[in-house]
Write a structure and sequence with these properties.
Chain A: It comes from Actinacidiphila acidipaludis. Chain A: Keywords: Transport. Chain A: Belongs to the bacterial solute-binding protein 1 family. The complex is a heterodimer of chains A (476) and B (461). With 476 residues, chain A is α/β, with parallel strands linked by helices. Chain A folds into two domains: 8-43 and 64-191 and 359-426, Periplasmic binding protein-like II (D-Maltodextrin-Binding Protein, domain 2, 3-Layer(aba) Sandwich), CATH 3.40.190; 194-355 and 434-474, D-Maltodextrin-Binding Protein, domain 2 (3-Layer(aba) Sandwich), CATH 3.40.190.10. Chain A is built from 23 helices and twelve strands. Chain A has helices spanning 2-8, 16-25, 30-37, 40-45, 89-106, 119-128, 141-150, 158-167, 170-175, 199-205, 213-225, 238-263, 271-284, 293-299, 302-310, 325-332, 370-379, 382-390, 409-420, 429-432, 435-438, 444-454, 459-474; strands at 80-85, 109-114, 135-138, 177-178, 181-182, 184-191, 194-198, 231-232, 318-320, 341-345, 357-365, 426-427. In chain A, strands 1, 2, 3, 6, 11 and 12 form a six-stranded mixed β-sheet that branches. A four-stranded mixed β-sheet of chain A has the order 8-9-7-10. In chain A, strands 4-5 form a two-stranded antiparallel sheet. With 461 residues, chain B is of the alpha+beta class. Chain B has two domains: 66-166 and 317-460, MetI-like (MetI-like fold); 191-308, no CATH class. Chain B contains 16 helices and eight strands. In chain B, the strands form two sheets. Chain B has a five-stranded antiparallel β-sheet with strand order 1-2-8-5-6, with no helix packed on it. The longest helix of chain B has 33 residues, at 91-123. Classes of the chains: A alpha/beta (476), B alpha+beta (461).
């Protein structure tokens, strides 16, 4: 098992983008294995909070810290809390600052465990072993549903709920709920509707940031004429292709259809899918616009697709992916984000609005303890979001947070686009789908869109394959 | 990895099992003593740890896998043999079965053959041991690391993948590259794409006026060194003239179709005059981009043949749908030929020299000695190596999982990988996964039996 995980990560360096790769690669291993031994889950929850009963709230050191924050946190002296999330490296360091502040305010001792590649397996075994972490950040929406059904996660307490209601738009609240109960807070999210570009290549071609898909294609054409490969696509990783499709589909067909397709209540053979794929083929099918042609794109994994825009003797001009590209550019290339590497929102397709596709980690309580609820309350608060944002590489959907907390303009603009989308943003469709369809290398949507990239003329064939795989994975 | 497949380990484990029932539940009831005088309970006591371990680690998993293969994905509903039906009707799994067959036939054969050749040849080389060391070295690398190495070896990009670097280097030695790969005119200009990647003007050329041929899509840093400013061609009364140039100025400030200052000439572009599909004249553009065609070209369409623009040769798509399995098998052979070589070399050491000498004295040439003496004498060793590799290959997983890129993973699929994918790779159907496991077991059994029989025979000898 260990070796399998390692192999998934083969061409990835330690960086935030890494996490995203993992996240989408993640396989819900625990599903079956868990059923047999899950008995211990319920029993252990009660053990941790019988120590300290409240009544000391008045003396708690939480008493608001600047900015008139009215955040009340209980005194948790002597309590130990464990937090699990996928983050490593700079993302982990950044989050540790939030935990440190929590410790300072409550007196609790928090520790952090990275869950590694297969999050649901990792947490599943911990639950079975009777030692789940107090709070976990789940990277996949589907895992939240799965864990809620099993009773492994606990609904939010009133304090945490209050923070959530005050700071988050209904769209984000809804994502953290399941079957009428609010389980989680989407405290750290990503904006996956961004196109990063090489400012020098744009300058050389005399191109400007396009606002619509038609402009985007025209810009790409102009850039080609200047002798620069216009668009770099990381087709060796199927998830980048699903994100391409999702952006086009969300903008073109609208949020309602997007939801239906995500739930598979309409089929992939639907005419809207056909239109979206045809639109996508305008790019994929034009070998001049794709760096290295389809074959080059299929051979480039996500890291390579980014580096080949900002390094080498003939760098490409644009690469599509989420905000995490920023950290990747800083870590792996000499380009400076904001000057050499710039970003514009994914263009609007057809008559639709510019899409905002997002992903995120949802904080949930895995124990019925006061500490876990207190930590969730803190995570949902604006105070925590500010500390978190200050470290960079972080986006919060917290609408109460002042945008000035972000360290630079690039990050601020990305956040602005996310907040501005209000409730029209949509969660990454492939992360909502069963892993067999939306999250497995060489299978389902990943593979079908790779085949589509190899042969963009065959829209109907791609649709048929997508539908067949979806039907199998959704079990309908 | 190698532990389970080595004949010693495998044979030992299975061979031990049938021996145990005898002393444990001896007939007749009363205390009986074996030849050594040990009471059965003592024998049982000593055997107990091994039996418990074997039971827990080998017997129980096998039984449970068979049991599990009869249940559905959730593990609660009994479905009989339906999972096996799925295995044999799923298109993807059938590919895995076919690929496994290819693997089992090709990989051990090639590895053994190479090992044999290496072993025989190194025997007579002074630096044989050093050579053997080098060939055996890949065995010291884990399958996983080897997989990562070969993923790089097979990388499409010649500047990253050594396989394609070689192929491209060889290819480029024999064919010259086009001057301006990937270049083309602007869409909707006078030059339109025509058959075979060439571009032909819609209008016809005439003497006295210059026919300019603008091209785009060439990076400034890919222009030949010392490319000059493009010059408008002077009209000549008795010739068709014009300029071929890169119709793009940095910053995108140039006018399409106009030779702006700062726009570079494209030298060495072949221009053909075509009348009714026949080339009537041809010329090459000069240093300043101008070309001159004789007056016979008047009234002809101008064509830029595809040879100007042929894309750079990009090497072989090693991990494409058709080559991915052979490529992975090659990496397996790289790893395991050394193993075969060492075993065969050991066997070779035991071959009586006199027989070889005798044959040579009798006038056999080296090939005959090899074919008629060495190989037959080595046959038992060769069988051991082949069988060992076969068992090893049947359960091949890591190399395929790592080397095959996502898009062609299904083309490279093998049973062990499918087992993993079905059980844990998103589908989470451990029923089907177990069914594949059972099938793998059934496939390994005959080879195992052959191996055990052979070991018994050796033991009797």
């Amino acid at each position: 098992m260990l070796s399998l995980n390692t192999s998934k990560d083969r061409s990835l360096e330690t960086n935030p983008a890494h996490r995203v790769v993992r996240r989408t690669t993640r396989i819900a291993l625990a599903a079956v294995a868990a059923s047999a031994l899950a008995l211990t889950a319920a029993a252990c929850g009660s053990s941790s909070d019988d120590g300290k009963k409240s009544g000391q709230n008045s003396s708690s050191p939480s008493a608001s810290k600047g900015n008139g924050s009215s955040l009340q946190l209980p005194d948790l002296h002597g309590q130990k809390l464990e937090v699990a999330a996928v983050w490593t490296g700079p993302e982990q360091a950044n989050f540790m600052k939030v935990l440190k502040e929590f410790d300072k305010r409550t007196g609790a001792k928090t520790s952090y465990v990275p869950t590694g590649d297969s999050q649901s397996t990792f947490l599943g075994t911990k639950v079975e072993g009777g030692a789940p972490p107090d709070v976990a950040f789940l990277a996949q929406n589907g895992v939240l549903h799965q864990f809620a059904d099993k009773g492994w996660i606990k609904p939010l307490g009133p304090e945490a709920q209050a923070q959530l209601t005050a700071n988050f738009s209904p769209g984000w609240q809804k994502l953290g709920a399941w079957k009428g109960k609010q389980y989680g807070i989407y405290a750290k999210v990503s904006n996956k509707s961004l196109i990063w570009y090489n400012a020098a290549a744009f300058g050389n071609a005399g191109a400007s940031e396009p606002k619509t898909w038609a402009d985007f294609l025209k810009t790409a054409e102009t850039i080609f004429e200047s002798g620069t490969p216009p668009v770099s696509i990381g087709g060796a990783d199927g998830w980048t292709l699903t994100d391409w499709f999702e952006n086009i589909y969300l903008s073109q067909a609208g949020p309602d259809m997007y939801d239906k397709l995500a739930a598979h209540t309409i089929k992939w053979t639907d005419p809207t899918v056909k239109t979206a794929l045809t639109t996508l083929a305008q790019l994929f099918g034009n070998k001049d616009l794709v760096d290295g042609g389809a074959r080059g794109a299929l051979a480039a994994d996500f890291p390579k697709s980014v580096t080949q825009v900002f390094t080498g003797s003939s760098p490409a001009a644009m690469v599509y992916e989420g905000d995490f590209v920023s950290a990747f550019i800083s870590g792996n290339t000499k380009a400076k984000v904001g000057t050499d590497a710039k970003v514009f929102p994914f263009p609007a397709v057809g008559t639709g609005k510019p899409p905002v596709v997002s992903g995120g980690d949802v904080a949930v309580a895995m124990k019925d303890s006061k500490g876990a609820q207190a930590l969730l309350t803190f995570i949902g608060s604006t105070d925590a979001a500010k500390i978190w944002a200050g470290g960079g590489g972080y986006l919060s959907p917290n609408k109460s947070m002042d945008l000035s907390a972000y360290p630079d303009d690039v990050q601020r603009n990305i956040a602005k686009a996310l907040i501005a989308a209000g409730d029209d943003f949509r969660f990454d469709m492939s992360d909502q789908a069963p892993a067999a369809f939306g999250g497995t290398k060489g299978e389902g949507e990943w593979k079908d869109l790779q085949d589509f990239l190899a042969k963009p003329s065959d829209v109907a064939g791609a649709q048929a394959k997508l539908e067949a795989d979806a039907a199998k994975a959704y079990g309908s | 990895m190698a532990d389970a497949s080595l004949p010693g380990a495998g044979g030992g484990a299975v061979g031990a099992a049938p021996v145990t029932p005898g002393p444990v539940k001896g007939p007749g009831g009363g205390p009986r003593r074996s030849i050594m005088g040990t009471p059965p309970w003592l024998a049982a006591l000593f055997l107990l740890p091994a039996l418990v371990l074997l039971g827990a680690l080998v017997a129980y998993p096998i039984v449970y896998t068979i049991h599990r293969s009869l249940y559905d994905a959730g593990g609660s509903g009994f479905v009989g043999l339906k999972n096996f039906g799925t295995v044999f009707s799923d298109h993807g799994i059938l590919t895995a079965v076919r690929n496994n067959a290819i693997w089992v036939v090709v990989a051990p054969t090639v590895a053994t053959a190479l090992g044999l050749v290496f072993a025989v040849l190194t025997e007579r080389v002074r630096w044989g041991t050093a050579f053997k060391l080098v060939v055996f070295m890949p065995m010291a690398i884990s399958m996983l690391a080897a997989g990562i190495i070969f993923r790089l070896v097979y990388d499409q990009d010649p500047s990253r993948g050594v396989a394609n670097a070689v192929v491209v280097a060889v290819h480029d030695t024999f064919t010259s590259n086009a001057a301006y790969p990937g270049a083309r005119p602007r869409p909707n200009s006078d030059l339109a794409p025509t058959a075979g990647g060439s571009y032909t003007s819609k209008s016809t050329a005439s003497v006295g006026t210059s026919a300019n041929l603008p091209l785009v899509g060439i990076p400034q840093n890919k222009l030949p060194a010392g490319a000059q400013q493009a010059k408008p061609a002077a009209p000549k009364p008795d010739a068709v003239t014009g300029t071929v140039w890169l119709d793009f100025r940095p910053g995108g400030t140039g006018k399409p179709g106009v030779i702006d200052p700062g726009e570079k000439a494209l030298s060495g572009v072949k221009v053909q005059a075509v009348k009714n599909g026949k080339v009537v004249a041809s010329a090459k553009s000069g240093k300043d981009g101008t070309y001159t065609l004789p007056s016979s070209a008047a009234g002809a369409q101008l064509r830029l043949p595809a040879s100007n623009f042929a894309e750079k040769y990009n090497g072989i798509n090693w991990l494409g749908p058709s080559l991915v399995t052979p490529s992975i098998i090659a990496s397996y052979v790289w790893m395991w030929a050394g193993f075969a070589m060492v075993l065969i070399a050991a066997g070779l050491a035991g071959v009586p020299r006199e027989l070889l000498e005798q044959a040579r004295v009798d006038g056999a040439n080296e090939w005959q000695v090899f074919r008629r003496i060495t190989v037959p004498l080595l046959a038992p060793v060769l069988v051991v190596v082949m069988v060992t590799l076969m068992i090893n290959v049947l359960k091949i997983f890591d190399l395929v999982y790592i080397i095959a890129p996502g898009q062609t993973q299904s083309n490279a699929n093998v049973l062990a990988l499918q087992l993993y994918l079905s059980s844990f790779g998103g589908g989470n159907d451990q029923g089907v996964g177990s069914a594949i496991g059972v099938i793998l077991l059934l496939l390994v059994l005959p080879v195992m039996i052959v191996n055990i029989r052979r070991l018994r025979r050796e033991g009797r000898r």
